[in-house]
Design brief:
Blueprint: E1 7-8, H1 23-26, H2 53-58, H3 78-88, E2 128-129, E3 132-136, E4 142-145, H4 149-159, E5 198-199, H5 213-223, E6 228-233, E7 239-244, H6 245-261, E8 276-280, H7 286-299, E9 302-306, H8 317-326, E10 331-334, H9 336-341, E11 360-363, E12 387-394, E13 400-406, H10 407-421, E14 428-431, H11 438-450, E15 454-457, H12 460-465, H13 469-477, E16 481-484, H14 486-495, E17 509-512, H15 520-531, E18 541-547, E19 551-555, E20 568-572, H16 573-577, E21 591-595, E22 599-600, E23 605-609, E24 624-629, E25 636-637, H17 641-648, E26 666-674, E27 680-685, E28 689-692, E29 695-698, H18 699-707, H19 711-714, E30 715-727, E31 730-739, H20 745-763, E32 767-774, H21 788-797, E33 804-807, H22 809-812, E34 832-833, E35 836-837, E36 840-841, E37 844-846, H23 865-875, E38 880-885, E39 891-896, H24 897-913, E40 922-926, H25 931-943, E41 946-950, H26 958-971, E42 974-979, H27 981-987, H28 990-995, E43 1004-1006, E44 1027-1034, E45 1040-1046, H29 1047-1061, E46 1068-1072, H30 1078-1091, E47 1094-1097, H31 1109-1116, E48 1121-1124, H32 1126-1135, ...
Parallel strand pairs: 6-15, 8-9, 8-10, 10-11, 14-15, 14-16, 16-17, 17-18, 31-32, 38-47, 40-41, 40-42, 42-43, 46-47, 46-48, 48-49, 49-50, 62-63
Antiparallel strand pairs: 1-64, 2-3, 3-4, 5-23, 6-7, 12-13, 13-25, 18-19, 19-22, 20-21, 23-24, 24-26, 26-27, 28-29, 30-31, 32-33, 34-35, 35-36, 37-54, 38-39, 44-45, 45-56, 50-51, 52-53, 54-55, 55-57, 57-58, 59-60, 61-62, 63-64
Helix pairs in contact: 5-6, 6-7, 10-11, 14-15, 23-24, 24-25, 29-30, 32-34, 37-38
Length: 1459
């Protein structure tokens, strides 16, 4: 199948001018950044351009359509080392990985059991101590004690999980277990011997090495003060300033003196030795920073070098503030220029940055400092275990930790670097790296001073302008050493074309700081290729590996022997995902070529341990986390003893459990192995590790592959982020890249699909989400890299604003529960035993029995409503039945019994004389909600006609509302149409003629002009079973259905409501409902005439101008019972939320309301009713007053629940509370009802739909087999009652299809009773509550319409549940509707926000539906507010929406097709 391209509204494809972007900055790439260069990489073949999606899906590619950086070409001598590596590894079987592997969990086989989420269990027998057993207490601590066998037995049974209850006749299959992937039997396993710890060479203490770094500074500052220490550059590459050793010494002394003596008072100095001080210096001012750093060392305070908190764009500044706070920093040293640049408040103060502690800013320029007295000298001691400095480190989750380094570690590290790099006095070194931390700090600020070297510092700003600047400085100063990252080499390659006179023969060492990165090798190779002709020697390139915790881990030594090629390994990517080293052939795409990072540091011991669980030594052919034991490592994470213990105090053990050394090791956070000849290889970082289905993938490798897909043309190098998010209990890979501003939609889609292919074929892992964002929009680190955790945060909270998204959940998510196979139902014989079905009570319930209710119901003696009205007009002529309110809350109109009777008589005359109608003819009543409608209805009854109430067309929206009116008039076969003069004009207007054929209307009668005479006689039906009226409504699935109501059913209905709601002539009831169908019509038009109570009528449309109208009327008329719809309730909740105080002041009091019933034909909207109750609680509304009713087409009201709150003598029965239960949503999908506690996972709150009306019986039946169901099943609600409708009224001739809706019988059990099928799924539950007559109260819970339920993966889903989850997923989703389309789940969301947010919703919607419903979303459609159609009852018309989607009429902002 061809995957459709996502469609996007044109306004979203922003046309940006190219000037808005600054390519040098964006293409700067991250700090750890690779490079792909023509020389080192096969160019993509031409066939790539024509790969289309079908080709991709139909065949997993293994061709060389893409090529990846990881497979960079080897230098001529490289294969020798690869052979050596191969010889040492005992197994050199080269594997062929063309078939994609079964991606599986990774089981451990060693003796020590490691807790893994996959739950690989190995049984351990407890060792016995004589008679005692080794028992484990609750938290797994072994307890040795003598116990009797009895107690032991008891303990064992307690530990054993409880047995599930005996299976009932059905298989309890709703325990949806996510698939746990089984280990692949063919997965590679490590087979080498256990590795040995590698020792570095002896650290030879040279006689003239200083006893501490400060001593070195004092020595050079006094004996060679003129020697240059540091040269800084301006942005033009001109030397800006030369700091000599003399100046460094005197200035840092001055800084030390001022820190200690000039802050605070003499008695209370602000900073004492040992305190932490922040160093805030910009990247272009290494000199001031160096002076401040050594000033702190001399004053014995602890410097914490950090970034300048300048811009909002620099992500992570807040976390640095937390670090400063936890280190107790109160003083920040900074330079003059930097201080001036900090944001100031109007008073000139520097505001407190977000998350930062309150700081005193102290400028370290000499002119601001006082001179130390002649007799003052800093106290210079030998290096000891005090903390020298704290280096900050950003973790995977964005938090910032401070690594403390002691003075002895600092000195030893400098000595080790001096020995490893062979540094000598007065050498010149060019440094491009950040001097605040890591390799830049260690070589450019610390080791350089120990050896009196001269550092040429190249600022980041200069590199951006001139990427060749560092090479030019090497030539100019004949530098011996340069410290760079692979991105600096990459930039130089891109820019070297125009350079003539480059000579790099002076270099004896080119330190590649990120040599441990998988892509650095291609940069090194390409750089050597180009610059070999310019005097660069191969053996000069020295990659190193470092980490904030272990400092320098390994570095390649500079040699003079050019014959000895560096070590390389070509490793199978597939093997690496299982942590196994397998040598492979260079030609393949799915290999990783790694270079060694040299030998272990002098004076250190290194080993590799298993990355998780017990730190057990790896085998020789296994990848593990490198650990180092040396003096020269970090000491702790400041203030975090637990994390420190896990990282800095690790004791690796052998397979037998013996510790390798008595000294602790430090975890480096690097994944790798020690190869032949002690060469260290690094294949990734712990931070970048993503474990997908038990296989490990490295973020950097995936970046390298993505960049190899025609990178230059499409995305910015180094502006690409790869991370994993946890969805449905596994990690999922997400790639975010910045695309160039000039790329088209087609380009981006093609590039994305190629990246997915490449990653799939090379790494054999699916990408869950690939997002492209506009250039320059990802959060940056201070030196231009991407801030990964911040990017991930933005992705998860939906504020990344991508311009393109491709999600592939169908291919990635492999751990969904198996689709459900339906169990065959068991036949009746084995099931029915009295009222039990398979051990459960049969789900049946009934309202009070009408026959047994004694009541003085005068209206009962009349069979027909028309007779009741005539009787009331004679006995109580002036009793007011109806009062209609206008939007100001004043009475617009009212009707007494006799007024209604006389008006109805006149209408009857009009029908007979002007309309020439016979009895039994159908009449359409097209009226606004009000008194006219009621009079017209009774006029029809008096004339013997059958009325049909129809909602009038909306004057502002004739085109869409008038066709519905026309359809109802036609389908109901109306012989005539009655309406007001105003609507009469509207029906004949020009707008109407444009919408429908106006000539086809039946005769239209205008009731504003009535005849004056009375009819000769009032029609009396011959038989109560004849038709009284037709009730037409459009269901949520968009079907127009009319049902026939007989006179008997109508009277029975009114009586049932009268008894349930205790309605008498003295009562007043407020009704705010649409009077066109269902219970709304019955309450508005019929009940008052039957029961004699006064109805206060409030047309819902009036609330749009005055939302408080309904509640003010309820309060003003002291109404005790009121009826409304969900749309009315929502209007009040949204419109009056902030006005409760002012309404209280206006005297609004709801304390007399005992029942407020929401009339609905759906699952009760519990969130809305609860928020309504909460909101108006302050105005006296009793929380139990709000309840719901339930009706449907076959029976307009099955439940209606007035709750009696206080018992007064005249009030009769007292109904129970509305009850809310929590059911397991997963069980519900299998049509099972399992009650759970509130707040438990996957719980769904359901509210009872109301108390069953008198005379109504309900049973729950299986909709397929029509068998009765037990209490714990979800089934169709069937109803038997005197007021059931008698059938559908339709001209489409499909009565046969729906005949069983009105007369169904059970397939077994009580097969005599005739039931009507409601078409709604629900369940019954016997509550603990009792009715007034002592009966236990049966609660009916409606779950949803059968028509709307979606069958997906063999399970039944209710759209509302998925919609609720989606609406919670992002603040901008206002409404949501779901439906299925060819087995795909389509989610339509309305976006309340800028169109930039549209694509943020796609991953969030996909995530939440996967997590909560175990479903993969097929299509996400983002639309404007108001696109999802809602009917007059406030229900979503999902089928209309589906038709609109399929006909492409939604004008969506974005449509995403998930793959």
């Amino acid at each position: 199948m061809a995957v459709p391209m996502p469609s996007k509204r044109r306004s979203l494809v922003v046309q940006t001018s190219m000037d808005a972007y600054t390519p040098p900055d964006t293409s700067s790439g991250s700090e750890d950044e690779g490079s792909v260069q023509g020389d080192s990489q096969g160019t993509p073949t031409s066939s790539q351009g024509s790969i289309n999606m079908e080709h991709w899906i139909s065949q997993a590619i293994h061709g060389s359509t893409t090529s990846t950086t990881s497979s960079s070409s080897t230098q001529s001598g490289g294969s020798g080392a690869a052979h050596r590596l191969a010889d040492v590894l005992a197994q050199t079987h080269i594997e062929n990985h063309s078939a994609p592997p079964d991606v599986t969990t990774y089981t451990s086989e060693h003796a020590i059991q490691v807790e893994r989420p996959q739950g690989s269990t190995t049984s351990r027998t407890a060792p016995k101590y004589g008679n005692a057993e080794l028992m484990e207490t609750g938290d797994g601590v072994p307890v040795s004690s003598r116990v009797s066998a009895k107690i032991q037995q008891l303990v064992n049974t307690l530990k054993r999980p409880k047995r599930p209850p005996l299976r009932e006749f059905f298989v309890d299959d709703f325990e949806e277990l996510l698939e746990v992937q089984q280990p692949d039997p063919n997965q590679p396993k490590p087979e080498g011997a256990q590795m040995l710890a590698m020792r570095g060479e002896q650290l030879g203490v040279v006689t003239n090495w200083p006893p501490s770094l400060e001593a070195a500074l004092q020595r050079w500052g006094t004996i060679s003060p003129k020697a240059p220490c540091l040269t800084t550059m301006d942005t033009n590459g001109k030397p800006l300033y030369i700091l000599t050793y003399g100046k460094l010494w005197t200035r840092s002394m001055k800084v030390a003196y001022n820190i200690l003596h000039k802050l605070g008072t003499k008695q209370e100095p602000m900073v004492r030795p040992g305190d932490r001080v922040a160093l805030v210096f910009p990247n272009n001012d290494p000199a001031a920073s160096m002076v401040a750093f050594y000033g702190c060392l001399l004053a014995e305070v602890v410097p914490v070098p950090i970034e300048v908190p300048l811009t909002r764009k620099d992500a992570g500044s807040q976390q640095i503030g937390f670090l400063l706070g936890s280190c107790g920093v109160t003083v920040a040293l900074t330079s003059d220029a930097c201080h001036k640049g900090l944001p100031k408040s109007p008073t000139g103060e520097i505001p407190q940055f977000k998350g930062w502690p309150k700081l005193l800013w102290f400028v370290t320029e000499s002119k601001h400092l006082s001179k130390p007295p002649r007799d003052w000298f800093p106290h210079i001691k030998d290096a000891n275990n005090d903390t020298a400095y704290i280096e900050y480190k950003t973790c995977k989750d964005g938090s910032v930790l401070g690594v403390t380094v002691t003075r002895i570690a600092l000195l030893t590290h400098c000595q080790a670097l001096t020995q490893a790099c062979g540094y000598t006095e007065a050498e010149t070194i060019v440094n491009v790296l950040d001097f605040k931390k890591d390799v830049g700090l260690w070589h450019g600020i610390l080791t350089s001073v120990m050896n009196m070297m001269h550092v040429i510092s190249i600022p980041y700003a200069l590199m951006k302008v001139n990427p060749l600047s560092w090479i030019q400085k090497v030539c100019q100063y004949k530098a011996k050493v340069a410290c760079v990252k692979s991105r600096d080499m990459h930039w130089a390659l891109v820019a070297h074309r125009d350079q003539r006179d480059i000579n790099l023969s002076s270099l004896r060492m080119l330190i590649v700081a990120d040599g441990a990165n998988p892509w650095s090798i291609s940069s090194c190779d390409a750089f050597l290729n180009v610059f070999q002709s310019k005097g660069l020697r191969q053996e000069v390139i020295c990659p190193c590996a470092s980490s904030p915790e272990a400092l320098t881990v390994a570095i390649r030594r500079p040699t003079d022997d050019s014959n000895q090629p560096p070590g390389r390994g070509v490793l199978s990517m597939h093997g690496l995902t299982y942590g196994v080293i397998r040598v492979d052939s260079e030609e393949k795409l799915s290999v990783l070529t790694v270079q060694d990072v040299g030998l272990v540091m002098p004076g250190a011991i290194m080993c590799s341990v298993k990355p998780d669980g017990v730190p057990q030594l790896c085998r020789t052919d296994e990848v593990g986390e490198l650990c180092v034991c040396a003096v020269a490592t970090g000491m702790s994470y400041y203030g975090l003893s637990g994390m420190t213990k896990n990282t800095f105090e690790v004791f690796p053990v052998t397979s037998s459990g013996a510790p390798v050394s008595e000294y602790p090791f430090v975890r480096t956070g690097l994944l790798g192995f020690v190869g032949p000849g002690g060469l260290v290889f690094v294949v990734g970082k712990m931070d970048g590790l993503m474990v997908v289905s038990g296989r490990r993938h490295n973020a950097d490798d995936i970046v390298a592959t993505a960049l190899a897909v025609e990178p230059m043309k499409f995305v910015y190098r180094g502006r690409i982020a790869v991370f994993s998010v946890t969805v449905l209990h596994d990690e999922r890979i997400v790639i975010v890249a910045e695309q160039r501003p000039d790329s088209t939609e087609e380009d981006s889609f093609q590039w994305m699909s190629r990246v997915l292919q490449a990653i799939d074929s090379i790494h054999q892992v699916g990408v869950y989400c690939l997002a492209l964002v506009p250039a320059n929009t990802l959060p940056k680190t201070p030196l231009g890299g991407i801030h990964l955790s911040e990017t991930k945060q933005l992705f998860l909270e939906g504020s990344l604003h991508p311009c393109n998204v491709l999600m592939c959940p169908h291919t990635c998510v492999t751990n969904l529960p198996k689709p459900r196979q339906k169990q065959p139902e068991i036949g009746p014989a084995s099931v029915m035993v009295g009222n039990l079905v398979s051990g459960k009570r049969i789900a049946q319930a009934s309202g009070r029995d009408l026959g047994q209710i004694e009541d003085n119901d005068q209206a009962r003696k009349f069979l027909f409503l028309s007779e009741v009205l005539q009787w009331r007009a004679q006995t109580t002529p002036d009793h007011v039945l109806y009062t209609l309110l206008n939007c100001r809350g004043t009475i617009a109109n009212s009707l007494t019994c006799v007024q209604l009777h006389k008006r109805a008589e006149k209408i009857a005359v009009m029908l007979m004389e002007r309309g020439h109608l016979q009895d039994g003819d159908h009449v359409a009543l097209v009226y606004p909600p009000g008194i006219d409608l009621i009079a017209a209805f009774y006029g029809c009854l008096y004339a013997g006609c059958v009325p049909i109430t129809v909602r009038p067309p909306h004057p502002q929206n004739i085109a869409t509302t008038l066709p519905t009116v026309k359809m109802i008039v036609e389908v109901s076969r109306s012989a005539c149409l009655m309406t007001t003069q105003l609507i009469c004009k509207l029906l004949r207007s020009r707008e109407a003629a444009a919408a429908v054929d106006v000539r086809a209307w039946p005769p239209i009668l205008d009731t504003d002009d009535l005849p004056k005479k009375r009819p000769a006689q009032i029609y009396k039906p011959s038989n109560p079973d004849t038709l009284a009226y037709l009730d037409f409504s459009v269901s949520t699935t968009g079907m127009l259905a009319g049902v026939k109501m007989s006179h008997a059913a109508t009277s029975a209905f009114c009586r049932s409501i009268k008894l349930q709601c205790e309605l008498y002539p003295s009562r007043e009831v407020a009704i705010c409902l649409d009077p066109y169908c269902g219970l709304g019509f019955v309450l508005w038009c019929l009940c008052s005439v039957y029961s004699g109570h006064q109805s206060i009528l409030i047309p819902p449309a009036e609330l749009e101008t005055n939302p408080a109208l309904w509640l003010l009327a309820v309060s003003q008329y002291k109404v005790r019972d009121t009826f409304c719809s969900y749309s009315v309730m929502e209007l009040c909740t949204k419109g009056l939320g902030s006005q409760t105080e002012s309404l209280k002041a206006r005297g609004l009091d709801l304390s007399r309301v005992r029942t407020c019933v929401v009339v609905a034909e759906e699952r009760p909207r519990i969130a809305l009713t609860q928020s309504f109750s909460k909101l108006f609680k302050d105005l006296g509304l009793h929380p139990r007053a709000v309840s719901t009713s339930f009706g449907c087409r076959v029976n307009l009201a099955i439940c209606l629940q007035p709750h009696r709150l206080w018992k007064l003598a005249e009030q009769g029965t007292s109904g129970p509370d509305p009850t809310t239960v929590y059911v397991d949503m997963r069980a519900l999908r299998h049509d099972r009802v399992r009650l759970v506690e509130r707040g438990s996972p996957h719980s769904l709150p359901l509210m009872e739909s109301g108390k069953i009306l008198p005379g109504v019986r309900i049973i729950i039946a299986n909709p397929e087999t029509k068998g009765p169901l037990g209490d714990s099943h979800l089934g169709e609600i069937w109803v038997h009652s005197a007021h059931n409708a008698s059938g559908y009224f339709t001209i489409y001739g499909d009565e046969s299809l729906q005949s069983d809706h009105f007369n169904s019988r059970l397939s077994f059990g009580d097969t005599q009773t005739v039931w009507a099928r409601t078409g709604y799924l629900g369940f019954l539950r016997r509550t603990e509550l009792t009715d007034a007559n002592g009966e236990r109260h049966d609660a009916l819970y409606v779950v949803g319409a059968l028509d709307e339920a979606m069958e997906l993966r063999g399970m039944r889903y209710h759209p509302i549940d998925i919609e609720t989850s989606v609406i919670r997923a992002h603040k901008s989703v206002t409404e949501c509707a779901v439906f299925t389309w060819t087995n795909l789940l389509v989610v339509v969301v309305e976006l309340d926000g800028s169109e930039q947010e549209a694509l943020d919703l796609v991953p969030l919607v996909t995530n939440v539906v996967l997590e909560e419903h175990y479903l993969v979303v097929g299509v996400v459609v983002v639309v404007d507010i108001g696109v999802i159609p809602i009917n007059s009852r406030g229900e979503k018309q999902r089928m209309h929406l589906r038709d609109g989607f399929l006909a492409d009429q939604l004008d969506p902002i974005y449509v995403a097709y998930n793959m």
